[in-house]
Structure formats: C-alpha cells, structure tokens
Amino acid sequence: MTTSRPAPKIPGADHPITVTPTGRRVTVRIGDTVLADTTAALTLQESTYPPVQYIPLADVEPGRLERTETHTYCPYKGEASYYSLVVPDADETTDAVWTYQDPYDAVAGIAGHVAFYPNRVDIRLTD
C-alpha cells in the first residue's frame, strides 16, 4: 500500500524560492578533510531561511557519503533522502547531508546535488 503526498506547494510572494548559480568556489570540509570542492554550486534561497549551497554530487569526494534510511518531506521541494559522512574520528556525521533526487519542478535544478548541514561542516565560498 502506498501513501499519497499532498500536491506540491508552489513558491510565490508568500514563500519565495530561488535557485541560482553561486558563481564562486565552494569548499566543504570537516577538520582537515575536504569533502567537496566545486565552482558549480547552486544557491537555494527559500523565504527568510539562510541560503543553502547545493553541491553537484560529482564534486563530492568519492567514498565520503554513505546513504542512510532517513527521509523527510518538504511541500515545496519534495522528498529528501540523507547521507552520513564517512570521516574517521569526526563527530555528528549521521544524516549530515541531504539530497532531493526527484525535486518538484520549482526547484528542479537541485537534482543531482547535495547540501551539507553548516553546523556540522565548514562551508567556504571564495572568489
């Protein structure tokens, strides 16, 4: 038996969402370990929330992500799935990364990208 989700909410004046190229180099680290390094990140700005950097999965260091069973739902973006970080001796690595594999049309650009919780990793934008 499958459960149906409500219809997606469409971003608008009351809840704007934009996805734009970041236009800068984005590096993600935990301690001295580089997890991702890209010039192809996307910035998702949702309503009044802080902007989120979405990194192409291809620009994440191989072997640093391990899929978990966690899933959450956003009425504007769809179903998110999660990864834990594979970094020896690092704290708080479980479900530290999320992705929308099949995002709703309004944010379709983030497909194939992942986002990292900024309180668990160091995310730096440089020119």
Assembly state (oligomeric): single chain
The span between the termini is 50 Å
Largest beta sheet: what is the strand line-up?
1-4-5-9-8-7-6
Structural class based on helices, strands and sheet pairing:
mainly beta
Mean pLDDT value: 95
- Classified by CATH, the class is Mainly Beta
Number of helices: 0
- How helix-rich are the residues, as a percent range? under 10%
Radius of gyration: 15 Å
The CATH homologous superfamily is termed: Domain of unknown function (DUF427)
In the predicted model, the low-confidence regions spanning at least 5 consecutive residues are none
CATH fold category name:
Metal Binding Protein, Guanine Nucleotide Exchange Factor, Chain A
How would you sum up the major sheet? 7 strands, antiparallel
Shape: globular
Query: How big a fraction of the residues is strand?
Result: 35-45%
Describe, in plain words, how this protein is organized in 3D.
- The chain is an all-beta fold and 127 residues long.
- It has one domain (17-126): Domain of unknown function (DUF427) (Metal Binding Protein, Guanine Nucleotide Exchange Factor, Chain A), CATH 2.170.150.40.
- Helix content is 0%, strand content 45%.
- The chain is built from no helices and 10 strands.
- Strands 1-4-5-9-8-7-6 form a 7-stranded antiparallel sheet, with no helix packed on it. A 3-stranded antiparallel sheet has the order 3-2-10, with no helix packed on it.
- The model has no long low-confidence stretch (mean pLDDT 95).
Secondary-structure blueprint:
Layout: E1 17-21, E2 25-30, E3 33-38, E4 42-46, E5 52-56, E6 65-74, E7 78-85, E8 97-99, E9 113-116, E10 122-126
